[in-house]
Amino acid sequence: MTDVWTAPADISNGYVPTSAKWSELLGTAGNLDFLLNRGWYLAGADFTEYSRLGAVGDMSTISGLSIPAAQPILVVGSIRKSPAADTFTVGLKVNGTTVVEAASGTQTLASCSATAQTESGGFIWIITPRLAAYGCGIVALCNTRESTTGASGLATLGPNANVWASTFPSSDVTSLTLRGITGAAATGYLKDVLVYTMGVTL
Amino acid sequence: MVDIWTATADKSLNDPVTFTEWNNLVGAGGNLDYLYNRGWRLHGQDTTERTSTSTSATDLSTVSGLSITVAQPVLLLVPFRKSSGAAAAVGFGLKVNSTTVIEAATANALGNSSATNQAEDGLMVIFITPRSANYLTGIVGMFSCRVTSTGANAVAAVLAPNASSTFAAVIPNATITSLAIRGISGSGSVTMAVDEVSVYAGGVTL
Questions:
Q1: Is residue A36 classed as helix, strand or coil in its secondary structure?
Q2: pLDDT digits (tens, 9 = 90+) for B61-109
Q3: Is-contact B78 B92, C-beta < 8 A?
Q4: pTM (2 decimals)?
Q5: DSSP letters of B166-187?
Q6: Maximum distance among all Cα pairs of chain B, rounded to whole angstroms
Q7: pLDDT per residue over A96-120, tens digit each?
Q8: pLDDT over 70 for what percent of chain B?
């Protein structure tokens, strides 16, 4: 962190910063700019637990976002399902557009297995900049396990081709909605969705 | 990033700082709070290379002095390697506080080498999602391992832990105070190592 300004050694009680020092702290290319422009920051969060039984539908929506197309996005969250022989899968809507649909199967953006057991796990998604001709940039990792022992479960890398509904909008991301579906035997749950943006300005 | 306070335009040379301005900078809800509460930050690291030839699972690198709340996601970056010496694999697991969550094994662990008698190295990227009742299995990782001398593929990129691995226990539903990388070598003639272990946690307060 060599570019951040530090207070001069002669600073003393009652020191009155000059406008130049204010600028170094707060101005363009100042300390705050340095941190803001380069860091990974929480842009939205939803700690509520949502449930889904049966047909596809919206679960968690994080709105009030303002994420430019150039900024990568990291999404972190948790899922679980009740102990029936049924999958639970998660899809994603960006602004009003369903990009990856929640669909029966195991390689959407997050999935519990079809094994008749209580499962829980976590997922991370990295969404790359949404630029012209680069509207498909999302990589999803998910791991779900039997809830009490952590034994058998499902590790998935997604999404696969069959669940892709649309490319990402190239406009600012203003909302993310996580969608879910089960086969109506198990109930799926979603919780602790965190949305981070990654700095892109040096 | 609309929530950050910036100095008023009329601030001029040698204008004194008001209480409100200081508070906007460093007070509750001020700029530093904003950055502190929302950002991903380095919480701990072990920059020493830790080596072992143990053929039973053992703690290799421990990052202690942590204070990561249950709501915070965690990211670990763990470079690893093994030496030549025998046709045997090495593998790595994870201990959270005093609980071994994923045991080190020579296959299907959080990271593995191949069993070929050659020096190899690679990287484990491990995320731990927020911990709460009913949500204590959230570990998502990936790794790849290469032949050190050429970069050729030793173990292709793997999503870990995979389906055939077994958790030893669920993640403790408590503040994380330490994380340990565990390791095992398939032969006493093969040295395993991790180095530059870094632990990051994400802010969760808007």
A1: helix
A2: 999 999 999 999 999 999 999 999 999 999 999 999 999 999 999 998 9
A3: yes
A4: 0.91
A5: -BSSPPPSS-B--EEEEEEESS
A6: 72
A7: 999 999 998 767 999 999 999 999 9
A8: 90
The interface predicted TM-score (ipTM) is 0.90
Residue A18 near chain B (CB below 8 Å): yes
* Contact yes or no for B137 and A153 at CB 8 A: yes
Q: Do B158 and B144 touch, CB atoms closer than 8 A? A: yes
CB-based contact B19:B27 (threshold 8 Å) = no
DSSP A161: G
Nearest CA to CA, how far is B84 from chain A (Å)?
Answer: 30
Q: Count Cα atoms within 13 angstroms, Cβ side, for A13.
A: 0
Q: How many separate helices (H) and strands (E) can be counted in chain B?
A: 2, 13
Which A-chain residues 91-110 have CB contacts (< 8 A) with chain B?
A: none
Contact across the interface for B38 and A41, Cβ inside 8 Å: yes
Exposed/middle/buried for B20, CB within 10 Å: 0-12, 13-18, 19+? exposed
* Best residue in B6, B35, B129, B158 for a mutation probing chain A (most A CBs within 10 Å): B129
Question: For the residues A168-178, what does the mean pLDDT come to?
Answer: 97
Nearest in space to A4 (alpha carbons), one of A29, A31, A27: A31
Tell me whether A68 touches chain B (CB under 8 Å).
no
Partner residue facing B161 (CB), from A78, A155, A196: A155
